[in-house]
Input
Amino acid sequence: MIRSHRTLLVAVALLAACGGAPDAPAGDSSSLVAPQTLRARAQGTVALRYTAELSTLDAGTRGTFVYTSTWGRRGQGPCDIFNCGNVVYVWNVTAAGATTVVDSLVVDDLNRTTTTGDVQVTDDGALLVVATEPTGSIVIYSLADPAHPRLVSRYSTPDLVNGVHTAQISRVNGALYAFCSIDPRGTAKARLTIVDLSDPAAPREIFTRVMGNPFVHDVYVRNGYLFTALWNDGVNVWDIGARGRGTPAAPDSIANVHTVNGQVHNLYWDGGRWLFAGEEGPGSVGASSSGDVHVIDVSDLTRPREVAYYSVPDAGTHNFSVDEKNSILYAAYYNAGVRALDIRGDLGACTASQLGTDNRCDLAKMGRQVGRGLDSGQPTVYVWGVEYANGTLYASDMLGGLWVLSAVTR
Output
């Protein structure tokens, strides 16, 4: 997230569905094939607030429900309930392409919430968890009726109150946890706080530790490992159940790696050899962004090393989503829309002509870019997040709201 203040009434618009383009192989740069176009199938317009994160829930015959959060203050004047990021919108997207707002949740504590940046549906579809700033908390809703989430609890402690910038909701050994990245404020430094959500009505803090330089921005949890994005302190790998030395209540540090340029913002691990790190450089909402996708070889988790990168001129990446079945990584690229990368095979092996800076492989030169969308400049977009689900790609655009896109086809 770009860290400054920005922010809607909702109007709904639809765009026609279109077809795809030829597939692009991950081959030598001399035989590159044009990437597929990620066609816009529908848009749900958000005009007065900035749209932030999104999360989806497949409701079968009821369609897909998409939950989008809002961020900061948009426009001039004081921050109030009409232009601040204190609302989560509930969208219903039908198989026919209709995109409708069916509810809105005012996540507000006496007008102290101006950002609901992170929002996530739990893996069982039972809960929706929302992170708030600058007054830090996690807000938990029941999705028994996915069209109309019901408040279960709002939880804060002295270790959350400075602002929950992101909250990754993950299971470890069957138990549900919120891994909360806490903002630095005043003399208080950034920290990671872990909350046990086994009882959603009574969350319980089990761990907190200062980390990050100057932020701990996001985390990724899988197979009993925790990866923390520590900005200019790189990426740290922790055992929280994989090796029997650490737990969510007492993570055990395994390794650290610094990526080129630092500013490590977000992470995705494929469970095997590759860890992807998003770099968020300087930017201005609606106008500019910077930062690359970095590929880290973690075949030896005790000795991670960066081997490749992907860069878009005059643009920077934000959040990722991965189609694991087809090995496609989708990256939100702010003013450059959405990019799709083929992550099959050996990403660290390339020819001399495919090498980029610092002897790292350049994924663009390797022909790894296989899709792109919302990058024509018409309309102007600033894509915050993406989520791939069941053959469809959803994107949150800070300026325009929710987009429904075609995904890359193999």
